[in-house]
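Hi there. Long-time user, first ticket. I'm pasting a complex I've been working with (about 528 residues overall). I'd like to know whether the download I got is complete or cut off, because the file seemed smaller than I expected. Thanks.
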Amino acid sequence: MKHIETLETRDMAESVNNGGCGECQTSCQSACKTSGIANQPCEKA
Amino acid sequence: MIHQYKLNGYNIVLDVYSGSVHVVDELAYDVIGMYEEHTPEEITAAMLEKYADNPEVTPQEVADCLESVEALKASGKLFAPDVYENRAFDFKNRSTVVKALCLHVAHTCNLNCEYCFAAQGKFHGDSGLMSFETGRRALDFLVEHSGTRRNLEVDFFGGEPLMNFEVCKQLVAYARSIEKEKGKNFRFTLTTNGVGINDDVIDFANRECVNVVLSLDGRKEVHDRLRKYVSGRGSYDDIVPKFQKLVKARGGKGYYMRGTFTHYNPDFTNDLFHMADDLGFTELSMEPVVCAPGDPYALTEEDLPTLFEQYEILAKDMIRREKEGKPITFYHYILDLKHGPCIYKRISGCGSGTEYMAVTPWGDLYPCHQFVGDERYKLGDIWNGVQNTELQSEFKLCNVYARPDCADCWARLYCSGGCAANALHATGSIRGVYDYGCRVFRKRIECAVMVKAAEALDPELRARAAKPAAAQDCEDCSGCENG
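Hi, the file is complete. Here it is re-exported in full:
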């Protein structure tokens, strides 16, 4: 019996080496203007 | 650190430091909950006792489950350690470029919304309009401080930016005239209350703006209670047809209906569904009001259970709509698990004061639009650049590891420590935490991840995702080969 389904996610620890390019947008250019980082897409991934 | 919760029939385990998301059965949920504090023997005994009536839970099955958990831990996807804090990312000395400006082209407004954080557009100061010369210098400042970055974002903001529409048009024309020479691509956005929208504005917005943010709180009685003219008349009837015309003409380009909910409408999903079902908008954002605790429309502790329930209702309804082939987007439920932000972004946050700044009509620089008007947070100006480098360093260091209150929070790498402005207003320090906002944020993340779990595992949604788009559009029709 399979007890655990692991969704496909970006490996955060690996992004220490393949992240940090700085090409992402700043958060406020989106929709809220008053309150998120998680919903910012990475422009390089 | 892990976070476990149950929602909409899914048992979800988030692994904080690897970013992994696991959907598990009841047995695994309990095993994982005990795993770090108990021996395998203790866990096995507890599981066999708890599931004594379940013939499928045998000693072998518990052993298999324990083995799966151990394998995930060994591969760094469960109970992953915090390997970031001690790497000592040098945030103070890291090189940053300016990526985006919030151009306050108008410190005045044609509405008199009660909850406006910008004090009816004047930001607790003088009213005024940005001149073309000041705006042009702001764009030059952005180019000069953007390094090798090609894409530059500029938001026309206020107050109400359409009260200075001619300057907005002139600034876009100027930006387009220097793009090629400077090797830049300006991406303009517009945030408007809608009163000033006409055919000229629609043509401009749909030609030049990659995104428009349209302020609408939902149901007419909700919207008109707080978003009204100086005369006291509500603005709903004036702006809704204009928004509909603008969105229809956008032809698929980005937009968001951006609402604010308050103590007067904690049942805010009814406002979202009104915008979707009655008005035809599909790209939605709805934010909790940020105001002084004593304001009559301020959200209260008693509102929280209702808000949590509303976020769950919304998540479940979005799944239903997706299954019916009529999806809506809710800004805070946009999570790209596979292509989301890297660890640097997750730690450093929104970029206010370093990568993102607000420019007043007179050319002063502030860390973001929510600091404008508070002289303590003036960074400098567009002619002389950032002069208050000490303040900018404070913002550079204002990351999730700088906030002791975040140390034990499972959502810390989803919010990056939260909003500096909200923290300042709630605690007096940009390194504080706005606890009410944190609780709302955590609920939103739980719901957003659940939606992602459904998209990945629900057979109906998987089948829909696997279909070609054309076939999805005409399921009820057999008129051609797509049917």
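A couple of notes from our side: The two ends of chain A are 34 Å apart (CA to CA). The helical segments of chain A are 15-18.
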